[in-house]
Design goal:
Blueprint (H helix, E strand, L loop, with lengths): L7 H16 L5 E8 L4 E11 L2 E4 L6 E2 L5 H13 L26 H6 L20 H9 L16 H14 L3 H13 L5 E2 L22 H7 L7 E3 L1 H9 L14 H7 L4 E5 L2 E5 L4 E2 L10 E6 L3 E6 L4 E7 L6 H15 L2
Antiparallel strand pairs: 1-2, 1-12, 2-3, 4-6, 5-6, 7-8, 8-9, 10-11, 11-12
Helix pairs in contact: 1-10, 2-5, 2-6, 4-5
Length: 348
């Protein structure tokens, strides 16, 4: 591993790029965090965000809805189940959740769900649909009862309903709620004091208000949060999210390893390929790889979310990068610009 060193003077270029996104009205505000495998961190804030209904300069303590960057947390819970001998990724999901096997899904495995190759119909993606009053168990039941869009393993389609199914695997195999499991097995050991599901009717203190276009999607941030959505409902801060990313580097001092080295190596491999939103993608076990950008190594894992949040963990360079904003539908190319500015600043 070639460890790149954080240099605050050179990282000022990355900070300037972040500020440029505000000046160009791409984002209203956000936080960029960079951490290395030696445990060092660097942060930059920009712009202003709405907190408790008031516009305020962005702070490190502000909490953001992670949307789909929740998926790597749920995937980690699943991989921990496998490491504990409670789950075989290649066994049919129906061997653990018998009713899941209906409607042709008897051969769908957890590996299929992690790699978006299970073929689950997106008609079960109710939480990202029209405004509705449903419980997490309602969403789980819909995902378990859905049919197939293609034969398992015979295609690729980004599928969020599979994460409801994986949440139910955690519920049944751990004997505790998936929301408690993420607290006990990820947030607790990593000391992520601000990372958890926040399903209350009122937004929690310090949560940054979402910036949407005010159209069909205006209700989604609250619906996703209140649903305890295992594919998109976690709330966190940039320092917490960065620390989670550092857990996927190799042997970071004072950052507990969540997964064994062999499993981390599997995460850095390509397990499936497909085409998503007009671009080719490579997928690992719950992560995209190597993600947007030109300078990170091929052994980089990445995920981003609809709320303008992105997380990279580059194993070869020993660098993790976290971006949090509240600006929905941040273009994919903007993530590339952010990580390029960071890697350009820290490269030897």
């Amino acid at each position: 591993m070639s460890l790149l060193r954080l240099n605050s003077t050179r990282l000022a270029l990355a900070e300037r790029n972040l500020e440029g996104l505000v000046e160009d009205d791409v984002i209203t505000g956000g936080v960029l965090g960079v951490g290395d495998a030696a445990g060092n961190t660097w942060f930059a804030t920009c712009g202003a965000v709405s907190v408790d209904g008031t516009s305020r300069p962005t702070e490190l303590s502000h909490r953001f809805l992670l949307t789909s960057v929740t998926k790597p947390f749920t995937a980690t819970q699943i991989l921990m189940l496998a490491e504990d001998g409670l789950l075989d990724l290649d066994a049919p999901v129906a061997s653990y959740i018998p009713e899941f096997g209906a409607h042709g899904k008897s051969t769908v495995t957890t590996r299929h769900l992690l790699t978006h190759t299970g073929g689950l119909s997106d008609t079960a993606n109710l939480v990202e649909g029209p405004a509705a009053t449903r419980t997490p168990d309602d969403y789980i039941a819909a995902a378990i009862g859905t049919g197939l869009g293609f034969e398992p393993g015979q295609g690729w389609a980004y599928s969020s309903p599979g994460f409801w199914v994986m949440a139910e695997l955690v519920n049944r195999l751990r004997g505790e709620r998936y929301t408690d499991d993420v607290n006990g097995r990820i947030s607790g050991p990593l000391e992520l004091e601000n990372t958890r599901y926040e399903p209350g009717a009122e937004p929690p203190a310090g949560l940054v208000g979402a910036v949407t276009q005010g159209g069909w999607d205006a209700h989604l941030p609250e619906q996703v949060r209140q649903a305890e959505y295992p594919a998109g409902g976690l709330v966190s801060t940039c320092p917490d999210l960065l620390r989670f990313g550092q857990a996927f580097l190799d042997s970071v001092p004072e950052v507990p390893a969540l997964l064994s080295s062999p499993v981390l190596e599997q995460l850095r491999d390509c397990h499936a390929t497909g085409w998503n939103m007009g671009r080719p993608v490579q997928w690992s076990l719950g992560w995209e790889r190597p993600g947007p950008g030109n300078f990170q190594s091929p052994r980089t894992i990445f995920h981003h979310g609809a709320s303008g949040v992105g997380l990279w963990a580059d194993a070869d360079h020993g660098i993790a990068v976290a971006l949090v904003t509240a600006d929905w539908w941040l273009p994919y190319q903007r993530y590339a610009e952010v990580v390029n500015s960071v890697m350009g600043a820290v490269r030897n």
